């Protein structure tokens, strides 16, 4: 992005001295731009450098001096979104012009759709290092701005002013949080991503006021957890792993039922219901045996903590293809 900017202004590729690149870089990092939320976000830290969890003693304050025992680093979610939107400033303004919209009239009614992704990164162990003992696996949580659209009046259809052309490219995917965790470690994952979920929830109930193209505009956000693989969906929703009798992340079908009935599958699970089932699993109100209890909660055995959208998962796609 910064080389593009340098090139765009001059028409020639120039290699800048280091300090100018440093300054350009600062603008791209979360924490640089001014913005506000209306109403203010609930339960969200006001300092933007909340980014470090030290495996021994909780949060530390600065992003630069990282203690050796750090197991997670992240940006505050809203600050990262602001940075991503500012990065798309030219595209948004161009989108308004292309649609023939008067940019001075378009100050509110913007909606941004975010795709969230989270996946394990496998083995990241040091080969010959003598560093601190951290888990040898890492998990990366990231987001992509999929589209920005604007609705000028209530009755009118929304007009899309930005659509990500390469939504699966690493260039449009922005890291939010990196952690030394095994993705199967439900407790640690919950501990680190818990605040991210709280921030996301707060943002759903508020509007972002941000200067784009020299004018203050207001944005609402929608989050879609469509970048998780099946293992991660099961992990986040507290379901048993993929070898479970309950094959599907969206309905309660067992392997036997799925193999006999190829047609009648519908989405029956919801995040709220999984939470209720976890409570049943935890308290066992009917004093049932382990097998009976498991049959009752249909494979929910941990506390689900990040609501994933019920989009079609791999199993339903396979069943759909088989029916075809």
From TrEMBL:
Q: Which GO terms describe its cellular component?
A: DNA recombinase complex; endodeoxyribonuclease complex; nucleus
Provide the V(D)J recombination-activating protein 1 RNase H domain boundaries: 112-244
Q: In this protein, which residues make up the domain named V(D)J recombination-activating protein 1 pre-RNase H?
A: 36-108
Q: Which InterPro entries match?
A: RAG1, RAG1_DNA-bd, RAG1_pre-RNase_H, RAG1_RNase_H, RAG1_ZnC2
Q: Provide the V(D)J recombination-activating protein 1 DNA-binding domain boundaries.
A: 1-35
Molecular function terms in GO for this entry?
double-stranded DNA endonuclease activity; histone binding; protein homodimerization activity; sequence-specific DNA binding; ubiquitin protein ligase activity; zinc ion binding
Q: Which GO terms describe its biological process?
A: adaptive immune response; B cell differentiation; chromatin organization; T cell differentiation in thymus; V(D)J recombination
Domain named V(D)J recombination-activating protein 1 ZnC2: residues? 246-308
Q: Which Pfam families match?
A: RAG1_DNA-bd, RAG1_pre-RNase_H, RAG1_RNase_H, RAG1_ZnC2
Specify the superkingdom: Eukaryota
Protein name, as recorded: Recombination activating protein 1
> Native species of this protein?
Schistura pridii
